[in-house]
Amino acid sequence: MVSRDQTPAVLGWEAFVAARTRAIRGLTGMVLELGAGQGENFSALTPGVQWLGLEPSSRFRRTLAERARHAGHHQPPIAATAEAIPLDDASVTNVMATTVLCSVTDPGQVLQETARVLTPGGQVVLAEHVPAPTGSSARRAQRLVKPFTKFFDHGCDLTRDTEAAVHNSDLTVQDVSRFHIRVLGRLHIPFVVITAQKPAMPQHTQG
Questions:
Q1: Quick check: 115 pLDDT over 90?
Q2: Kind of pairing, strands 50-54 and 9-11?
Q3: Is residue 169 one of the residues assigned to a domain?
Q4: Is 50 left (phi over 0), alpha (psi -120 to 50) or beta?
Q5: Mean pLDDT, to the nearest integer, of 118-124?
Q6: Residue 28 structural domain
Q7: CA-to-CA distance for 44 and 10, rounded, in angstroms?
Q8: Where in the sequence is the signal peptide annotated (predicted)?
Q9: How many independent structural domains does the chain possess?
């Protein structure tokens, strides 16, 4: 497990996007994207990846399907929530989600479903905003605008601690990269890029 105090934060949106892209580009095989939106991450995928997109919004799925075809991915988007992924156990190689777990109803259930559909040893890449330190002006600002973001931004909860949720899941955290993104004047909001893994099956020894 990676300690939250080991990795210093890097300033800037560009650095966050670059780290997010590097992490996504490292995924191979069949990649399931949770909350795929309108296909913003296609350019970050490695050529040859078999992409599956899960998106609960019918409005987003129309655009997503079109952009997926243009990107060479012909599997239609899956109409489902991330809390109930309609795929078999151990059926995908890797999973990715970018600014999605802030909006789901039950992040613990999402991570449980993610671990279920992953093959043993499969990786998860998450890029999310997380709560600022308790007592900070940024944390107070997050609490202040949270009712508005939840209503106007697809249920987005600015105070949701996705990093803690991953640490408390069945996934093993491999790396956490931290960033401070300026949103207003001197106010910065923390973001993270998390790489985690489903533990490989234990090997049985012959007696």
A1: yes
A2: unpaired
A3: yes
A4: beta
A5: 98
A6: 9-197
A7: 21
A8: none
A9: 1
Contact yes or no for 36/207 (Cβ under 8 A): no
Closest CA to 116 of 2, 199, 24, 25: 199
The whole-angstrom separation of Cα 89 and Cα 198 is: 12
Nearest residue to 75 (alpha-carbon basis) of 51, 54, 104: 51
Is 203 within the bounds of a domain?
Answer: no
Residue 186 lies in a domain: yes
Contact 120, 200 (CB under 8 A): yes
| Residue carrying the six token digits 């909001």 | 189
Cα 203 from Cα 199, distance rounded (Å): 12
Cα 109–chain centre separation: 14
> Looking up tokens 């995908």, which residue turns up?
92
Please tell me the pTM assigned to this model: 0.89
CATH number (domain holding residue 164)? 3.40.50.150
